[in-house]
Amino acid sequence: MQIAQNSVVSFHYTLTNNEGEVLDSSEGRDPLTYLHGAGNIIPGLEKELEGRQSGENLKVTVEPAEGYGETQPGLMQEVPRDAFQGVDDIQPGMQFQAQTQGGPLMVTVTQVEGDTVTVDGNHPLAGQTLNFDVEIAEVREASEEEAEHGHVHGEGEQEQEH
User: Fold this and answer.
1) pLDDT digits (tens, 9 = 90+) for 31-80
2) Which of 68, 104, 128, 155 has the fewest CB atoms in 10 Å of its CB?
3) End-to-end alpha-carbon separation of the chain, Å?
4) Residues of the chain above pLDDT 90, percent
5) Given strand 116-120, what is the order of strands in its sheet?
6) Strand 76-80 to strand 116-120: parallel, antiparallel, or no bridges (unpaired)?
């Protein structure tokens, strides 16, 4: 069966950056399973998986625009240290959930200087070219509920109204 709209796809992957560093991998874990066409994985990878079938191996390069987007300078800002009440030792790399006008946003601390903390609300992979090494494990038709809900239901998951 070929991957198409409302296919449930399971695949193993290794994700590297242009320097060859492994950023993420399913090695030693279950394959990643998603509902094709529902926007559950980055657009550039989903587009390349279209029409493929189980057993295929492929290498996919995804530019930032079809991955996690370009880095947006407006999502980086300096905030006073006292905005982090209850956190004594703030270090670069720490992540926090910030409340913004658009709702909650994960931010990563990039710099701490005196009473000023610089945070970045961009996805950690924004602005990066992503290189995927993919092995498609399984392709099946989605159940009616999965297609309706827009995501894959796990083994034994109870059906709930959304």
Assistant:
1) 999 999 999 999 999 999 999 999 999 999 999 999 999 999 999 999 99
2) 155
3) 29
4) 86
5) 76-80, 116-120, 103-113, 95-100
6) antiparallel
Q: Which two tokens stand for residue 14?
A: 């290794």
Give percent above pLDDT 70 in the chain.
Answer: 95
**The model's pTM:** 0.81
CB contact at 8 A, 3 and 52: yes
Q: Is 95 exposed, middle or buried (0-12, 13-18, 19+ CB in 10 A)?
A: exposed
Residue 155: per-residue pLDDT: 61
Distances (CA, A) of 33 to 13, 30, 73, 109: 11, 9, 33, 31
Which residues are paired to 12 by β-bridges?
Answer: 135
The two three-digit tokens of residue 145, written as one number: 């509920």
* Type of residue at 63: E
Neighbours of 99 (CB within 10 A): 8
Residue of 149, 146, 138, 134 whose CA lies nearest to 44: 134
Quickly state the pLDDT bin for 102 (edges 50, 70, 90): confident
Which 3 state secondary structure label does DSSP give 90? coil
Which amino acid is it at 113?
Answer: E
